[in-house]
Amino acid sequence: MKKTLTTICYHFFTNLANPTRLAALEQLMDKPMSVNELAQTLGQEQSMISHNLKPLLDCNLITVENQGKKHIYTVNKETIAPIFKAIENHAQKFCPKGGKCLTGEN
User: Fold this and answer.
1) Whole-angstrom Cα distance, residue 7 to residue 41?
2) Are 54 and 6 within 8 A, CB to CB?
3) Which of 41, 62, 67, 76 has minimal Cβ neighbours within 10 Å of its Cβ?
């Protein structure tokens, strides 16, 4: 059965609707990192970061390279950079109250 765009978008954006995953993606936009580096940077447990990287890997939003015992994660900038740019652009140009609609503030 062919998936509709609605189904694809729903699953794609559900994957991104997690604050930990978004924070990890944002950090990985700056540089590739290990789980431990991400955990330290984000102030979260390593197990929580690992748990949240799996769906991003499954969706190919990040990739992993083994360097000895370390797993280094890299963001798929071809996909993520335009999404982040579009959201930033939308917030600046079209959101009432300077983008507060995107932050949940009134």
Assistant:
1) 33
2) no
3) 67
Give me the domains of the chain, ranges plus CATH numbers: 5-100 (1.10.10.10)
CA distances from 11 to 48, 70, 93 (A): 21, 29, 27
**Local confidence band at 4 (pLDDT 50, 70, 90 cut-offs):** confident
Q: Is it the case that residue 93 has pLDDT exceeding 80?
A: yes
DSSP string, 14-63: HHH--HHHHHHHHHHHH--EEHHHHHHHHT--HHHHHHHHHHHHHTTSEE
How far apart, in whole angstroms, are the C-alpha atoms of residue 41 and residue 36?
A: 9
Three-class DSSP category at 71: strand
User: Would you tell me the crossing angle of helices 35-42 and 46-58 to the nearest 10 degrees?
Assistant: 120
76, 62 Cβ separation under 8 angstroms: yes
Mean pLDDT of the region 28-54: 97
Name the residue among 79, 53, 80, 52 with its Cα closest to residue 64: 53
